[in-house]
Amino acid sequence: MRDGRAPGRGEQGVKIAVVGTGYVGLVVGACFAENGNDVICVDTNVDKVKALKRGKIPIYEPGLEEVVKRNTAEKRLSFTTELAAAVKASDIVFIAVGTPEAEDGSADLKHVLGVARDIARAMDGYKVIVDKSTVPVGTSEKVREVMRKETRHPFSVVSNPEFLKQGAAVDDFLKPDRVVIGADDERGAALMTELYAPFTRTGAPVMVMDCASAELCKYAANAMLATRISFMNEVARVCELYGANVDQVRRAVASDNRIGPSFLFPGVGYGGSCFPKDVKAILKFSRDKGYDFRILDAVEDVNAQQKKKLLQMMKQRLRSLKGKTIGVWGLAFKPRTDDMREAPAITIIEGLLKAGATVQAYDPEAHETARRIFGNRITYARNAYEALKGADALALVTEWNEFREPDFARMKKRMNTPIIFDGRNIYKPEAIAAQGFTYYSIGR
Ligand SMILES: NC(=O)C1=CN([C@@H]2O[C@H](COP(=O)(O)OP(=O)(O)OC[C@H]3O[C@@H](n4cnc5c(N)ncnc54)[C@H](O)[C@@H]3O)[C@@H](O)[C@H]2O)C=CC1
Ligand SMILES: O=C(O)[C@H]1O[C@H](OP(=O)(O)OP(=O)(O)OC[C@H]2O[C@@H](n3ccc(=O)[nH]c3=O)[C@H](O)[C@@H]2O)[C@H](O)[C@@H](O)[C@@H]1O
After folding, report:
1. 42 lines ligand 1 (CB under 6 A)
2. What is the whole-number distance in angstroms between the Cα of residue 258 and the centre of ligand 1?
3. Do residues 429 and 315 share a domain?
4. Residue to mutate, 64, 177, 225, ligand 2, most ligand atoms under 8 Å from C-beta
5. Domain count across the chain
6. Residue whose CB lies within 8 A of the most ligand 2 atoms, among 280, 334, 336, 397, for a mutation test
7. Range of the structural domain that residue 340 is part of
8. What CATH number is associated with residue 272?
9. By alpha-carbon position, which residue is closest to atom 37 of ligand 1?
10. Is residue 141 domain-shared with residue 80, that is, in the same domain?
11. How many CB atoms lie within 10 A of CB 256?
12. I need a labelling partner for 436 at 20 to 30 A (CA). Which of 61, 104, 220, 335 fits?
């Protein structure tokens, strides 16, 4: 302990280390500091740590820069590559490193278990080791085993899955719907409940359970949300076959209190770093025990088809894509992030290029990420209108706010032919037709 106090919340808050300073770790570290705790963020990426020390945030996440800068200035938040020193200086150590998809679809635990081993080697007394990364059921036990081999000091292993969404991460973390704490001993559970007390003043429940249940909560929640999306994408397909309007169907279905409105928007399929890999992982660890999670097989399959949907629509309506110029609005997997992991835009753009089209793309935040994927195989416009210069059609892939009410006359002037393929159903078909555009959307 840095000041000899018992672990837990004192006048200075809790001493915390967060290992892994990515989309989750940086938000978690900054927000715990915001609530008065003393946080050291650790990452092996030297450039990232250097940049953070200079106050440069490596990702785009609304509101994060302000929280990081304030807490760094007030010396509650610091950054390092030295894991051992950070562990020694902390009572609670969060593991927030990546758990990418392995070749067989399982979550690759090499980073999590490697960090657990390094933490154990650095221990100098009782610590709570908290797994924040999304990990399959049974991982807490694996973490315990790895650590027991390396240290004689006592420790608690806690599973504390994270439910934040990119683009709203700071808000989601500061005002969670619930906090899940998986703990197999009371000491760890009590310290974690105390740590989260300031986040649950508005009445959000802290749910304490065994580690296995906590680990499964995360996958069940993500898989349920992914299921709703694939379900509505299938409803949209049926709407197309019968000339029904998926917007009207969605609103009516959503108004049932038992169903609710969230995550029922049809589109170009779900992307991001989590739904695709987490659906695959739950399928895999269910199958490992001989259980076939059939619904999720379908969810995955529907999503893979849906990612190609806009491309198929363009191929069908424009006849040939060879030699055509397509303006693409939106590259990130969702608005308010620069992240393109598993983004539908990748499938769509690769398909367009393969078919011989030229792509002029615009995204408010994701150009740097996109350059690492496409290099100069596409062009990056300075604004939404520039992406339409001489375009034979617009493909709207991500529903950034700035695309919702564009200057249609200006768009038309820029385009070769005024055709819009809307992958997110953000425009009203009648209104667009009145502006003189030919308009195609999903399930309407
Ligand atoms: N991105 C999201 O919105 C959410 C992600 N999660 C889960 O949180 C975990 C982390 O995800 P992201 O933050 O998106 O990943 P990320 O890839 O953005 O960040 C991971 C960070 O860990 C660092 N790292 C890797 N090995 C390390 C080591 N040995 N020591 C120190 N640092 C190390 C990397 O350099 C990187 O900065 C994953 O399990 C993910 O499924 C959970 C909820 C939301
Ligand atoms: O485990 C995670 O990493 C996180 O995964 C998702 O968060 P995130 O991937 O950041 O973004 P979402 O808002 O869930 O969107 C995921 C994808 O679904 C798509 N989506 C979402 C909602 C909808 O109605 N339709 C739809 O196609 C989005 O466009 C996006 O591609 C979950 O919402 C978070 O609760 C969870 O913590």
Report:
1. yes
2. 34
3. yes
4. 225
5. 3
6. 334
7. 308-441
8. 1.10.1040.10
9. 22
10. yes
11. 9
12. 335
Looking at the fold, whether 394 and 422 belong to one and the same domain comes out as yes
Indicate if 34 and 167 belong to the same structural domain: yes
Whether residues 289 and 325 share a domain: the answer is: no
- Span 322-362, pLDDT tens digits: 999 999 999 999 999 999 999 999 999 999 999 999 999 99
Residues in contact with 196: Cβ distance below 8 Å, sequence separation at least 6, in sequence order: 179, 181, 206
Distance 53 CA to ligand 2 centre (A): 30
CA of 231 to the centre of ligand 2 (A): 15
Q: Is 289 contained in some domain?
A: yes
Q: Are residues 348 and 367 in the same domain?
A: yes
Instruction: Note the ligand closest to the C-alpha atom of 160.
Output: 1
| Residue 91 and residue 157 share a domain | yes
Q: Is 274 a catalytic residue?
A: yes
Are 360 and 344 members of one domain? yes
Residue ranges at the known binding site? 43, 48, 99, 134, 218, 263-267, 271, 277, 334, 341
Residue 4, in any domain of the structure: no
- pLDDT tens by residue, 257-301: 999 999 999 999 999 999 999 999 999 999 999 999 999 999 999
User: Which protein residue has the closest C-alpha to ligand 1 atom 1?
Assistant: 23
Q: Domain end: 209, 227, 251, which one?
A: 209
pLDDT tens profile 300-316: 999 999 999 999 999 99
Q: Which atom of ligand 1 is nearest to the CA of 165?
A: 3
The CATH number of residue 422's host domain is 3.40.50.720
Asked if ipTM goes beyond 0.95, one says: yes
Residue 6 covered by a domain: no
Specify if 380 maps to a domain. yes
275 C-alpha to ligand 2 centroid (Å)? 7
Closest residue by Cα to atom 10, ligand 1, is 98
Q: Ligand 2: which residue has its CA nearest to atom 36?
A: 163
